[in-house]
Each structure stands twice: as C-alpha cells, then as structure tokens.
Amino acid sequence: MGSCFAVNMAEKLDYFKFQNSCNPFGILFHPLAIEKLIDFAVSKKQFTENDIFFHDERWHCFDVHSDSSNSSKEELLESLNAIIKSTNQQITESTHFIITYGTSWVYRNIESDSIVANCHKVPQKLFEKELLSVEEIKKSITNTVKLLHAVNPDCNIIFTVSPVRHIKDGFVENQWSKSNLISAIHSVLDTEDCKMNTEYFPSYEIMMDELRDYRFYAEDMLHPNQVAINYIWKRFKETTISETAFTTMDEVSTIQKSLSHKPFNPNSESHLKFESKVREKITKLESEYSFMKF
C-alpha cells in the first residue's frame, strides 16, 4: 500500500508471479490515509452516504484515490464496501505487508476539519495544507502496526519511503517531508512494541545515494525511470526475498521473456517447437504452483 512507487514494486511481484494485491483503494501518499483505510478494513467499517460527495458530475470519497470515483452514488458505495470486505480477508491471510509512504504534507478539509487522502480537484481554498510532525507520524505508524498484528500477529511489515520527489511542495519542503517520515519510521521500529516482524527498506536512500544522477529519472525528473526501478528491485530481492525462491523466479522470468518473443515466422517448425517447449515449462510451473497463471 502507498504511493505510486508501491505500484512499481507490485508490477515486479506480478511479473515473477508472487501472490499480491496492490493499493485496493488506489494510490495513497501519507501515513494517516493508509492507517485509516487499514482501520476500516480490519474493523469491516462500511462506507455510507456521509463518506461521499458530488463534484464535477461524479461521486467521490475523500478517503480514497480518484480511480474509485463513479458517476453513480450507489455503485461507488457498493464498490468501496466490496473492497473493504476483500481487503479484510487479504489482511488476515497475507504473510507480508509493504507500506510505502510518499509525503508528510497533508490537506485538511476546512468544513469537516478532517485530513483527506485525496482532494479530487476540489477548490484549494476549501483546504488547509499542513505538515505532519514526527510525533504524529509515529503515532500513525504505531497504530497501523497494532491494527495489522491484531488480526494477523505473525505477519511481516516492511516500511519504505518513496523515492519519488514531491517538488510541487518545494525542494526544501520535500526534504523536510521525507525526513519526518524517515525519522518517525526508525523511531517506531526501535520501540519494543514494534520491533517484532517489522523492518525498513531504504528505497529513498538508494535513489538519493546510489543512483545520484538525473539519468536514473524519468522525463519529469521526479520519478525513477525503469533502470532505477530495476536497480531498487534488485536490492529488494537481495535483502528481502528468500534465496529458495530465486530458482522459481528465474524459471518464471524465462517464460515471461519467451511469451514476449515476436517470431519472424509464426508458422515455422522451429517456432512451433519453441512454443511447445514454453507450454511444457508453463504446465510444469502451474502444476507446482496452482495460483500461477500465464
């Protein structure tokens, strides 16, 4: 769960056929938004008409990403509550949670006096911008850990800070924001209550220190490009994924590359033999891992 960098890592997990779910409520950037939706899922709270609003001909919810917005009020509520149900099941069954925080900057809706996850292009004058303090973030992270461990005491939780820079806040403000996140995470992981089954993966630090060059950024000069994503994934694999999975990952990768192969002559005997061998490999893996589908 978390920022768009969480999506980058989920795409890698998808590629290697790990069972995973990414951002059921859409991309979320700050700790309070993630905590709130985990709380909703754990407690099976239902969204009601009080949680949604109409703007620009669509119904929205301040607690979720605009990807969930809908022209139908009923369909939006039905969709959100279905996600609550499925996320509750995933939280109780998952072995690992990877939470990627993007920013400490938040927007408070003046009318409701509540911090939102997404402003949905509602006029900015209706919000106040705030920076979460280290203490506020620590409290939110601690609550998140307790919520997950309450229903899944053996799960592992990996925290990371997104390497995507939020330059719209300003260069100094971006560093301030990231530093509050990093300080809070390490403070929480150093406490007795949260030491068990929790760890930190340094996505942001790898981007800043090992890939300290603009050639590792996309055209917007803010998001890591594919070379950087591949590098950070390599570090994640080395430090977080068991070596016992590497052989299977290599087999999956070989099949994925074969499936993306564009033949010069699809009807040639050599290509038909190639396809047959690929099918054999797929059948073998799918018989060993029933959840894998190519």
Structural summary, described in words:
Residues 1-236 form the GSCFA domain. This is GSCFA family protein. It holds the Pfam family GSCFA. It is a single chain. The protein is mainly alpha-helical and 294 residues long. The chain has 2 domains: 4-241, Rossmann fold; 243-294. Helices cover 48% and strands 12% of the residues. The protein has helices at 4-15, 31-43, 73-93, 134-151, 171-189, 203-210, 226-240, 246-259, 269-288; strands at residues 53-55, 58-60, 96-101, 105-109, 114-116, 127-131, 156-161, 198-200. The strands form 3 sheets. Strands 3-7-8 form a 3-stranded parallel β-sheet, with helices on one face. A 3-stranded antiparallel β-sheet has the order 5-4-6, with no helix packed on it. Helix 5 links the parallel strand 7 (156-161) and strand 8 (198-200). The two termini are 25 Å apart.
Which features does this protein show?
294 residues, mainly alpha, Rossmann fold, 2 domains, three-stranded parallel sheet, three-stranded antiparallel sheet, GSCFA family protein, GSCFA
Give the proportion of residues in helices: 40-55%
Oligomer state equals single chain
Q: What general outline do the C-alpha atoms trace? A: globular
Number of domains: 2
SSE pattern, N- to C-terminal: HHEEHEEEEHEHEHHHH
Number of helical segments? 9
What is the mean pLDDT?
A: 95
CATH class of the largest domain: Alpha Beta
Strand order of the largest sheet: 3-7-8
CATH architecture of the largest domain: 3-Layer(aba) Sandwich
Using only C-alpha atoms, the radius of gyration works out to: 21 Å
Q: And the CATH topology of the largest domain?
A: Rossmann fold
What's the story with the biggest beta sheet? 3 strands, parallel
Count all strands and give the number: 8
Q: Percent of residues in beta strands?
A: 5-15%
Structural class: mainly alpha
Question: What separation lies between the terminal Cα atoms?
Answer: 25 Å
Low-confidence segments: none
